[in-house]
Amino acid sequence: MFWFFSSWDFSFILTLSTLVQAFGFILLTLKVSRAKSISGLSRNTLVCYAICLLARLSSILVYEGYLPYDSTGDFIYRACEIATFASCGILLYFSFVAYKRSYNAELDTFKWYYFTVPALIFAMLFHPSLNMRYYADVAWTFALYLESTAMLP
Predict the structure, then answer these.
(1) Which of 46, 63, 64, 145 pairs with 135 at a CA distance of 20 to 30 A?
(2) Would you give the DSSP letter of residue 101?
């Protein structure tokens, strides 16, 4: 993909990381659907990722300030983010509806809102201005801050 879709620019690393994340979420979704069990996964982490991806999508689908500079930012990056969000949504569906009996709430002790509220406050106070739109800049920064702590639960 680097040779065919990008302009051999450093910003391709952002697209590559999104490809790896989408691949990981898709594989996790396939594993859960085949095992018919959500055991071992943190619902709170999935909620954090869903909020994070929704915030990022609200920024990158409308504005271009945080997209990779090369041509991968036009379609591939956005498509991978949408695929990751869809996989996360499916995993949340499995967790809350389809395989809720296999979820172990006693082991999932950190709550998602412990990270979400402080990340939002920090994003509102400290954010760049690449889109020149307050909401889009805060949404991108909020996603960045929340994603850095989403694995803690």
Answers:
(1) 46
(2) G
